[in-house]
Amino acid sequence: MSGSATPTPMTSHRCGPLSGIADVPGDKSISHRSLILGAMAVGETRISGLLEGEDVLDTAKAMQAFGAKVTNHGDGHWSVHGVGVGGFAEPDNVIDCGNSGTGVRLIMGAMATCPISVTFTGDASLNKRPMARVTDPLALFGAQSVGRSGGRLPMTIVGAADPVPVRYEVPVPSAQVKSAVLLAGLNAPGKTVVVEQEATRDHSERMLAGFGAEITVEDTDEGRVITLTGRPELKPQVIEVPRDPSSAAFPVCAALIVPGSDVLVPGIGLNPTRAGLFTTLRDMGADLTYENERIEGGEPVADLRARYSPNMKGFVVPPERAASMIDEYPILSVVAAHASGQTMMAGVKELRVKESDRIDAMAVGLRACGVTVDEAEDWWAVTGLGPEGVPGGAICESHLDHRIAMSFMVLGMAAQNPVTVDDGSPIATSFPIFTPLMAALGAKLDTQT
Ligand code: S3P
Fold first, then answer.
1. Residue 423: active-site member
2. Tell me, how does this one assemble (predicted)?
């Protein structure tokens, strides 16, 4: 069992063709950042298309605890009355970020240069995840932290009363670490510099510029150098959150492996720091086309059309592509099981410290469903069974990880026998409408309550 309070087993049965339009919810990364930056601006930020998943709702509650006024006007329309950079009040109680690594790490960064003391906690998954990757750079600003052994939550951070700016080379490819340092840099006088060797998702940089911060990004021999000038007055924004490519991945991949399918997923951002999965699927021979390509809010966007693709081939995913598809390896492994030949995924040890150890979680479940998976610390390889699909017929553990649960549900749609997850409840953290949306396309999902 995964260990959630009330585990909800879910079963996916082999289904007929999937067809129709899949309107996936707002982008999780941009939703967190909209709330946090809105809370650090002076005045009212208005947001539409906010992802109303549990992770983001926990961030909204946290921003309220820091003194921002957060209002839900219904149907994805929210407003945030910010308190300004450096204006966070000390919360009266523990901040519970639930399942969300992005939420907790970004909020730690945002409060670390304010003279307040905050205790953070999360669910059983989040409380196992490494936080030193964030608290180490935050210490350079002058923030102190005490957590459980191994730098785990629950953890208290005492923000720096007199923060100093920092130059930090991010040692792991992580947008969360980069963003935590940039958010901390907002309330440090002078220039905070972050250097990353591999380009990770760049929503923080783009949104900070949108909120009026002085920020530059340069590609140099030492890496991507991001320079932020501290103590700006952030100006409130009107934000339309684009739809989440990481959620789009599930109906897209389901359509590729379920015979006869043809699904349209409109309005998906193809920011190169996020679109690695779609490039990889096309490299494998997927019938995935970009329709109505356009620019929205400065970002490339397209409607994705995915059709059943019985001729996909195994592929060696370039390791340098990993950051642009880091959340999509679990669902890629399901597609790889339906390709012919082996798919090799290397340079992916970050997968071991996500909501679960995603290599292990997928490898164990895929093997139980009759798929050969080889793995080592930094790579894994799936041997495809071709379009006949996998035997299935297993109960797989989701380990409190939404993307693991959804990946096995997609596997069951094409498997010869039903696939069950012990707990589908984590799906609500990022894709609360997953079950009705997939059912409307033709999926057969049962939830055992
Ligand atoms: C995210 C960054 C990624 C990703 C997560 C969202 C973000 O994590 O896995 O789902 O919004 O910054 P890392 O930055 O730790 O790779």
1. no
2. Monomer.
Structural domain containing residue 427: 10-26+243-447
Q: What is the pLDDT of residues 68-123, one digit of tens each?
A: 999 999 988 999 999 999 999 999 999 999 999 999 999 999 999 999 999 999 99
Peptide bond into 154 cis (omega under 30): yes
Q: Is 174 annotated as a binding residue?
A: yes
Q: Which among 228, 256, 277 is the end of a domain? A: 228
Same domain, 191 and 67: yes
Helix 101-111 with 175-185: angle, nearest 10 deg: 20
Instruction: Ligand 1 pocket test: pick from 107, 202, 326 the residue with the most ligand atoms within 8 Å of its Cβ.
Output: 326
Residue type, 286: A
Check the annotation: does 33 bind a ligand: yes
Confidence of residue 4 (pLDDT cuts 50, 70, 90): low
Number of domains forming the structure of the chain = 2
Structural Rg of the chain based on CA atoms: 21
421 close to 395: Cβ distance less than 8 angstroms: yes
371 lies in the same domain as 407 = yes
The catalytic residue among 96, 202, 327, 423 is 327
Between the CA of 99 and the centroid of ligand 1 the distance, in Å, is 13
Q: What is the pLDDT of residues 439-449, one digit of tens each?
A: 999 999 999 86
Closest residue by CA, ligand 1 atom 10:
327
Q: Which atom of ligand 1 is nearest to the CA of 29?
A: 11
pLDDT surpasses 70 at 3: no
- CA atoms within a 13 Å half-sphere pointing along the CA-CB vector of 259: 9
Annotated binding residue 403 = yes
